[in-house]
């Protein structure tokens, strides 16, 4: 589980959502993400850079790349999160590389091809109209078969590749995977940088420095993200009370749970 893509802990992942005025704080995924703007202008921050993604443009985001989306009035976006298994040729070719630029343009014919496979209509305006009478929110894209998914991804990645420039990755992936695995398995417990360092066999100073450099957020912020998402899942799927969800997710008090939940997810636990 990585924040708003709950199946990202698995190796074989594909999720697609249509958003109106997407609003997510700093987060990342195990897989890549392509965010396409169908209508309006979407504000985003990725890799420490600010973007205003216009209609017909898209952002390509690498695995574990920290990014956030700010509410942008009237913006409608289509987000695809996928693991390397869905684009093996692309993933293997750039296994140890990072793109210099995230922003790219999608030609109308390519966008129409992709949208027609998911929504049965190729025009971005038609798909965007699904939200014409809705407030801010999210719609899951209809499920399509694996071959069609791959055809859509490679069509989009081909456009990204046209002007892409890559540099050798400097990321410490072994540390990244180990740190995420530790948090995923232990976020309900009382964990800290000290317990992470002990589990990985490194010094506190080394882990603290590397974690900040790799993720760009505090360790406690990452843990709270997992706890808030877990609490939201418990309230949605098991219909438990906010108090029970807070305790089962690792929060120590209802006050801190309410504050953190609203700060990270943009709503109160009871305002569902």
Give a topology summary.
Elements: E1 14-20, E2 24-27, E3 32-39, E4 41-46, E5 49-54, E6 57-61, E7 67-70, E8 76-82, H1 88-93, E9 97-99, E10 103-105, H2 108-119, H3 124-128, E11 137-140, H4 146-161, E12 166-168, H5 173-186, H6 193-200, H7 204-215, H8 219-237, H9 242-249, H10 254-265
Antiparallel strand pairs: 1-8, 1-11, 2-7, 3-6, 3-8, 4-5, 4-7, 6-10, 9-12
Helix pairs in contact: 2-4, 6-7, 8-9, 8-10
Q: State the total count of DSSP E strands.
A: 12
- CATH architectural name of the largest domain: Sandwich
The biggest beta sheet, please?
Answer: 6 strands, antiparallel
Separation of termini?
21 Å
Q: Which secondary-structure class do the elements indicate?
A: alpha+beta
CATH topology of the largest domain: Jelly Rolls
What's the CATH class label of the largest domain? Mainly Beta
What's the alpha carbon Rg, rounded to whole Å?
Answer: 19 Å
Topology as H/E string? EEEEEEEEHEEHHEHEHHHHHH
Structure write-up:
With 272 residues, this protein is of the alpha+beta class. The chain has 2 domains: 14-168, Sandwich (Jelly Rolls); 173-265, Homeodomain-like (Arc Repressor Mutant, subunit A, Orthogonal Bundle). Helices cover 41% and strands 22% of the residues. The chain has helices at residues 88-93, 108-119, 124-128, 146-161, 173-186, 193-200, 204-215, 219-237, 242-249, 254-265, and strands at residues 14-20, 24-27, 32-39, 41-46, 49-54, 57-61, 67-70, 76-82, 97-99, 103-105, 137-140, 166-168. A 6-stranded antiparallel sheet has the order 10-6-3-8-1-11. α6 packs across α7 and α8 packs across α10 (254-265). The longest helix is centred in the C-terminal third of the chain and has 19 residues, at 219-237. The two termini are 21 Å apart.
């Amino acid at each position: 589980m990585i924040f708003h893509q709950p199946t990202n802990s698995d190796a074989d992942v594909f999720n697609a959502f249509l958003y109106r005025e997407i609003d997510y704080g700093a987060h990342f995924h195990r897989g890549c993400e392509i965010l396409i703007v169908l209508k309006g202008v979407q504000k985003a921050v990725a890799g420490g850079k600010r973007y205003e993604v216009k209609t017909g443009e898209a952002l390509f985001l690498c695995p574990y790349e920290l990014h956030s989306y700010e509410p942008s009035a009237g913006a409608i976006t289509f987000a695809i999160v996928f693991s390397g298994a869905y684009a093996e040729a692309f993933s293997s070719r750039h296994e140890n590389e990072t793109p210099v630029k995230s922003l790219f343009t999608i030609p109308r014919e390519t966008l129409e091809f992709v949208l027609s496979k998911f929504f049965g209509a190729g025009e971005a305006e038609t798909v965007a109209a699904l939200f014409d009478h809705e407030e801010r929110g999210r719609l899951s894209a209809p499920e399509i078969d694996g071959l069609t998914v791959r055809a859509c991804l490679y069509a989009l990645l081909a456009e990204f590749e046209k002007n892409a420039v890559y540099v050798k990755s400097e990321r410490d992936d072994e540390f990244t995977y180990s740190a995420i695995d530790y948090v995923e398995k232990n976020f309900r417990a009382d964990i800290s940088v000290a317990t992470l360092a002990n589990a990985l066999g490194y010094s506190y100073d080394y882990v603290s420095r590397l974690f900040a450099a790799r993720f760009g957020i505090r360790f406690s912020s990452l843990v709270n993200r997992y706890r808030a998402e877990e609490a939201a899942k418990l309230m949605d799927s098991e219909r438990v009370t906010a108090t029970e969800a807070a305790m089962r997710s690792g929060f120590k008090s209802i006050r801190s749970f309410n504050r953190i939940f609203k700060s990270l997810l943009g709503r109160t636990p009871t305002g569902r």
